[in-house]
Structure formats: structure tokens, C-alpha cells
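Supplementary Data S3. Sequence and C-alpha cells for construct A.
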Amino acid sequence: MSVFRKDFLWGGATAANQFEGGWDADGKGPSVPDMCTNGSHTVPKWITTAIRPDKLYPSHEAIDFYHHYAEDIALFAEMGFKCFRLSINWTRIFPTGEETTPNEKGLEFYDKVFDCCKKHGIEPLVTISHYELPYALTEKYNGWADRRLIGFYENYCHAIFERYKDKVKYWLTFNEINCGMSGFGAVLGLGTCQGYEGPAMGIETSAQTRLQALHHQFVASAKVVKYAHEHYPQFQMGCMIAFMATYPMTCDPADVVLNQQKMQEGNWYCGDVQVRGAYPHFAKRIWKELGVELKMEPGDEAILKEGTVDFYTFSYYMTNCVTTHEGEQTSGNLMGGIKNPYLKASDWGWQIDPQGLRYVLNEIYGRYQIPLMVVENGLGAYDERSEDGKFHDSYRIDYLRSHIQEMAKAVEDGVDLMGYTPWGCIDLVSASTGEMAKRYGFIYVNKFDDGTGDLSREKKDSFDWYKKVIATNGEDLA
């Protein structure tokens, strides 16, 4: 008998800016990712202030889910998906973010997508803001640095809540909100890149700007969660954290304390606000160390307390080590860090740590005691066609199997785990590098880094393997 609950939400995860395409179709406005060029493992993607004809912007077409949604959702259904995590592209609904009347064509598109999901018995899990801030709000307000974005976000949420109240039950307010704690979050999450041209992951912003912008996102999230609870009691509202677990490199107490502080700053700071409804005790230390003077309006603390989430979701790809001593830096881990000699790494240098997922699940559940969901996890790899014309991605199967096995152990530990949606269930554009070559999917898409490809879809070996996993509720992992 499976350890996973009978209603476990097996599925897959995507983001509009990475797979939807149709970037200017039917009245859609440009979002921040639409201003980002392609890149690679070694060449950074750039953000530009205007669309340059000599540059390739991969989100403009991506894999064109905009015109392939019925085919793609049918393939997800064939795998047996119970749940499909996707995002709504803010600029498809409000092209500049400031409009008061939503774009009907944009609303109609998601009507079709959600209806298609329901036809196949798939529950949508919708990320409201997944790195898709209207670029007009960056140009005019420097993104979330300006408190006025709270109102624009509320207006956007009210429109989609009312439109899809009978089609969507599960909502996430912001994707990987804790990326705002780091420099690269300026482009991805906060949109605090007004007038900036250069490497998207290399922008330099002040901690003051980042943490103030993050506060505005916390207030916005809490306001719409409270609004949803009051107006749509059928909704389940969640947060989403990029969980970046760290280990002390040695048993030197200085390493242990440093690791504790890294975990607090990287993971618990944001999670505590969204789940517990208040800044944690260590926030003042972080503000002092970073030279931040957080400006709060009267009533903000009450809003945070009243707008706590119902469930906690997170992405999990890797772990890092930290130390006060010398150590070899990893080449590819998102947050940098010291190389763990006990772990192997992906083609992109991301260290693979299945056991870390069990550890993380226990840590999160022990802290918050609300249902958890792993909404991103997966292996980015070069997928090469074999001589028989097929894609034999045994390395992806091995990766996912080992992580599901550790999830099962966490459930046996007592963790309330409600679902699992591996990242990039169909090949899509990488958020960090802007490339297609870094593939995650069970479904191969004929699209390449130079923009060529006929967009045809093909099943990889992992497709049938995951189909079997879902059919047996995680019992058959062979």
C-alpha cells in the first residue's frame, strides 16, 4: 500500500514566461522576461530596455503553449496528471499592470486552458506572479520598490479570482518569493531593474531596495490571501519558497552558526512572514547587518497576521555547504556555496542531493505544521536523440526516483505532503540562463537555442516511467 495519500496531487510544473509564447498576441503587453535575451551555461542572458532586432528573446515564442495547449494538456493527461502547476501571465490580463479593465482576450485564453484541464480531470495549481511582472511597472515605478504595486497586484488578483472562481481551487501568490533576498531576484522576482541593461543575473541592487520591495510583496500577498478567504472560501492559498538548504561544512561551531544564519536569511525569513504572519525574531539582526531600515505603514503588521497561507510549497533542486574556512566553490549552484564532496552534480554544476529533500521536508513541516507540496524538482540535462531515434533519459528517471523515494520516507516520518509537480514537465526555456538546451521535461520539444525548430512534441523514456509512478501512487518506481 502506498505511503502517499489517496488524493496525492501528482503532476508537473511550468511558468508562462518560459513556455507559453504568444508574447504580444491578443493584446498582451511586455513583461520583464520578454525583455530578456537568450544565454547559456557560460554566456549570461541579458535584460534590455527595448527589444533589439539583432537579439533573440526566447520567451517571445518559447515552446508556444499558447497555440499547443490542447495537445500538451492531453499529453499530461496521458501521463495521468492529477495536477498541473502553471502561471497566469499578468500582462495578458493587464498589459501594463495599471489598467482597471482586464483584457478579455487574455481572460478567454485561460478559460480555455482551465476548461481543458478540467475535461481531463486535472486540477490547476495557479501561480499568480511567476517572474512575470509587467515591464511597464518596472519602467515607471522600479517594480516592487514602489508601494503602489500592491494596489495593482490586488486589482489583478480580484479580476482572476472572480473569473476563475469555479475553475481554480489552488493558488500561489508569488513564485520563489525569497529570491528577493538575493541580488539576482531584482530582475526575476522584484522587477527593481528600472533603466538597467546588462546580465540579468548580475544586476547590483541595494539590500535596502530589495527588502523594502519584498515587504511590499508580503503585504500584497497577505491582502489577497485575506480577500480570498473572505470572498472565496473554496480557495486554498499557498506560498512558494525556493528552498535552498545548506549544511555546515565542518563541525566547527562557527560553521554551524553561519549555517543557521544562512538558513534563516535564505528560507525562514520569508516563510515565517507568510505562514506565521510576522517577521521572525532574527529579522532585526538581518536588517542591522545589511544596513536596512524597513519602512512599514500603519496596519501592515495586522495585514501580515491576517493573511497567512493555507499550505506551503517550495522548489528543491540542490543543497549547498557553508564554511568559515577555505573550500572549493561549486560552479553552478544557484546560490553559490562550497562543494559537497559527498554529492554528484548535474551538467550545470547543480549538486544532486535526494536525501536533502527528506531533511528539508522534515524541517519545514516541523516548523510550520501545515500541508506541504514540492512544486519544483527536476534535472536539467542535455537530451540527445539515440540511434534508434528515441530519447533514453535514464539519468532523469534515476534523479526523480531517488527524490520520490526520499519523499516517501518523509511521509513515513509524519510529514503531511499533498503533492509533487516536477519542474518543466515539458521542455521549456531556462529561467536562469535563457536557453532551451537545459531540458527538464518528460516531453521533448523540437526547439533550439538559436530559435529554430518545428515545435513538435515527443515522449522521452521518462514519460512512460512517470505514468507508471502516478498509476501506482508512487509504489512502482522501477
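Construct B, processed identically:
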Amino acid sequence: MQTPELRPYQKALKSGIYTAFRETKRSVLAQLPTGGGKTILFCAICADALAKGHRIIILVHRKELVLQTVKSLLKYGINAEVIMPGYRYRPTAAIQVAMVQTISRRDKPRNVGLIITDEAHHAQANSYKNVYAEYPDARHLGVSATPCRADGKGLSDIFQEMVLGPSVKELIALGNLVQPRVLANPLKFDLSKLKTSRGDYNEAELFALMNQNALVGNLVKTWQTKAEGLKTVCFAVNVNHSKHIVESYRNAGVRASHLDGETPDAVRERLLRDFAQGQIDVLSNVNVISEGFDVPTIECVQLARPTQSLAMYLQQGGRGLRPNPGKNEALVLDHADNTFKHGFLEQDRNWTLDGVKKDTAENLEIRILDKKTQKTYRPSDLPDTIEDFELIEVKHENHRAKQLQGEFFNSMERGEKPLHAWNRFVRSVGGRPTMQEIDQFGKMAGFKAGWAFRVKVDLGYIKPQAPYRRAGAGA
């Protein structure tokens, strides 16, 4: 069997993980956007670890992720045992793929050298911590597209170091993801009046707000005019909301089905198969398809559930970005104000162990384009009469980009070296420019690619694979 070939950025990320482990870091968090290939990456790491005689536990939190991981390991010729209800427990197996809720209640396998946590933004839960406590000498690898908790805080109390993969924009440029196109419907009511529970809107209050017939009907009407014929997943507030959405779709003659965490296994497998094969047009769900659902044929994502969680928004919106033959973009129908709250799916974000830094998002002004009049509006100024609108990013509204350009050209006029402008800009943003800004300045100044690489290394965005010279004067 021919094992999968890792993409260059996956190889670089794997190398960065190994470097961190060699530097005596026992717990490492790897970030890679949704659709970037996290499962194949850690399966390749498993193959290396097994070859060295290590025993491994892979922790996941959903049945779909267990089965997906087992299938991916088989591509490397690895037969894994499974720890979850309905499967015989074999604690002596060299590699176990375990539902964290199940293994946390059982006697644990012994002499484990590596624990891998998929969707590691959940690692704060006690079920994960109980497993970690059993293996104080094991190495821990967490992987996540969104390495932050629901409240936006980081995972520094679980992991010692973070290794970053490419951004969503970079993966789009490489052809490994497709460009999202967003149609957004600004909400006309105030979400700030809702209570907060466990870092997100109170479910009962949110359901009462979003389950209105007019809003549910708008989901169907918008889909029929903007997305009919596109394979669509819809994200609802709760089970009753999802079933109401499905009923409205069916009443309009659309093939729609509902899926949630309590759906029987046989029914769930049939629905997912029918959806993948095109027998279902719209699959409405409640937090089932948010993580680990790999169907590249998804062409449209419909957001019917507002959320305060950046991680949930990115996980849900990212479901449609996987490439597929003939698929050039993914349509996102945002009926829930999420784009206005969290920004664009593809915009750069500064992920850290302390959480995501919001400097990039806060310096982008989102505008709505009225396609009939070609006028743009801020969301708060959008007139009630607008019907055909599309969310766009007005790039010249990125104030940091304008500031960086200004510093560079002013420095050139004064006859200074380019690095004088760079150092002034870095001081003005608190010493943490984004990777996009590093690349932008390097191109403006005519620096070789090595300068941007060294700056990213110095700031901890990437790990060097060999000795390197720090970025500085004369680059």
C-alpha cells in the first residue's frame, strides 16, 4: 500500500512539532485551518512513533471522528483498536483511537508514550484532563484549526508551545482550499440582550429569537434564490430549531433532513451517505457537522445560529472550503450576524497560546455592497429596502496596511534604510506584526524571502528546520 504523501506545508508543520519535542517541550499544540489535513498529518506522526516502539492514544470526542481516524490510519497500514461503546476493549494494543468520554471512565492502557488530541480546543474539559493525568511522562500533541476556547481564551495551561501552519488565505492561494463568497443578512434585533451561558448565547433565549417563522422562512427563500442546486449544510440553534428548518424546506419541495447528536447510528450513517451521494439537498444539524466532517462536495454553508464563539464560527463556516473538481468557491449564507461579529473566514488571525489576538479583525471595516445600486454601506447603516446584497471586504479600509505603506514611503523620502520604517511600525503595533504584514513589507522593500522567514521564526510563527540568521539590519 502506498502511503499518502504529505504536502510541503504539512511536512514543515511536522518538522516544527518534532523540533519542539526535541527542545524538551512535552506538550505541543499544532494549528492548521479546517480542510488543511490535520488527520493525515497526525497519522503520519503516528507511523513514525510506532516505528520507534511507542504506544499511542488518539483522543477524539465524536464517533464520526473515531471512524474517520481509523480509516486514515489504514492508509498508512496501521490497524488501530477502538475505545468507544459497542467495541471490544483491548488495552494492550499499540495504538488506540478513543472516545474521550469512554476512556476517561475505564482502566487506562499502560506505557503510553504519545497522546494525540484531535480538536484540541476542547482539551480544557475534565474528561481530557483525567486522561492526561494518567500519563505524566507521555508526550502530548494537540491539533486544532481554532486553538481557543469558546470564551476566546487560550490553552496555555494545557500546552507549552504552539506550532502554526499556513493561514486560510495561504491555503486558498495554494489551491488546497477554495475562496468563500459570503451573502450576509444583518440582524435587525439586538443580540446583546441575550444571556450568556458557558461562553455563548443562552440556548433557550437564542432559540426563541431565531425560531420565528419569518426568520426560518427567510432561510428557505434565500436558499432558493441564491443557492438552489448547491449541496448545503445548515447550522441550527438546537434540535427543535433544526427540525423546524427542515419542515420549512420540505414544505417548499426541497429534499432536506435533520441530524443531531442523538440520531441513531444507523440513521446517521444513512443520512451522511445520502447527503454525500446527492440524495439530500440540505442537511440541517446541531453541532454534528461542525468538526471533522469531511465532505469536499459541500458547496454551501447556511449559518442560522448566532454564536459568540470564534472557534464555532470558523469550524462551521470552514466546512465548505475543501476543494473538489469543478468547485471554484464556497457560498456562505450568513443569517446570524456571525461575519459582522467575527470577521471574514479567510482573514488572518494571530493565534497564540493565550488566545487569538484581535488586532487584524478590529482594523477591518466590513461593508455591504448593494449589487443593484453598486453603493456600499456599513452594516449599521444598511437600509431596510436593500434586497440583493453581498458581503465584501474593502481592502483599503485596513488601517494597519495603510500605516505600513506610509511608514515605508516616508522612510524612502527621508533616505533611510527600509528597516527604519519596519522598526517604527513594529513598535507602533506592540511588537507583533502579522505574517501577512511581514510578507507585505518584505515585498515592498525588495528583501529576499529569507528575511520574512527569519522574522516569522523570531516571532514564533514558525520553527526553523536548520540554524538560521536572525532578521536585522542589512537583510
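The chain has three domains: 8-167, 172-347, 399-458. The two ends are 46 Å apart (CA to CA).
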